[in-house]
Amino acid sequence: xKRHATTIILFLVALALGxxxxxxxxxxxxxxxxxxxxxxFAAWRRExxxxxxxxxxxxxxxxxxxxxxxxxxxxxxxxxxxxxQAAAERLMTxxxxxxxxxxxxxxxxxxxxxxxxxxxxxxxxxVFRFVLGGPSPRPExxxxxxxxxxxxxxxxxxxTEALLASSDTYRDRTVVPYLSLELARREVKHPSGGFV
Length: 196
Hints:
Blueprint: H1 5-23, H2 30-35, E1 49-56, E2 59-64, E3 74-77, E4 81-82, H3 85-97, E5 100-103, E6 117-123, E7 126-135, E8 143-147, E9 153-155, H4 157-164
Antiparallel strand pairs: 1-2, 1-6, 2-3, 3-4, 5-9, 6-7, 7-8, 8-9
């Protein structure tokens, strides 16, 4: 038993470290936080990004994708349909690189009591919830934003516009996908009632 004591101790230390890392996976690491100290979201794990939800003006937009199979984005709310992948990519890029424009002064009216938009970004088990408040007087087009329970700050016009975009922004507008393997038949009806 004595000659295996070192091996047993090392095994237990490795096991404890593995459990600690597994339990701590849904938290932002200090390294992530330092690398993104001026970004809106304290961490960004693009490969784990599976859901974006934005609610505003009586509409809840939900974009989802299966990260295991690397499937394309789909809209599941307010309609269940394909999305324009380029538009979804633009939204992801805007969220990923969004920065804090400036801190908020104490006397500002922030508009969080009646937010213009709210939502969540899901990356694996890590979820960031945000609220878009009222417009900020400077710079032009900017707004107040709060992520989770953190202090509010001002964000850019670009992020504001992305969070206030309608679901139509993300709809796929292709009638027939180019070289689609799903296409079995195409039928076009003429106004006179015949087929073309």
